[in-house]
Design brief:
Elements: H1 2-41
Length: about 40
């Protein structure tokens, strides 16, 4: 029972870390796109 809980906790933690990296990368992409539009407008 304890092994099952530990395994679930590890998998959940891994998914949370990978999701955080994905959201961070998407934010950087949106930021760079916004900067490119701003430069074009100027």
């Amino acid at each position: 029972m304890v092994r099952k809980i530990v395994a679930i906790a590890l998998v959940t933690g891994g998914l949370m870390v990978s999701a955080c990296n994905t959201v961070e990368g998407a934010g950087k992409d949106v930021k760079s796109a916004g900067q490119a539009i701003e430069k074009t407008a100027n």
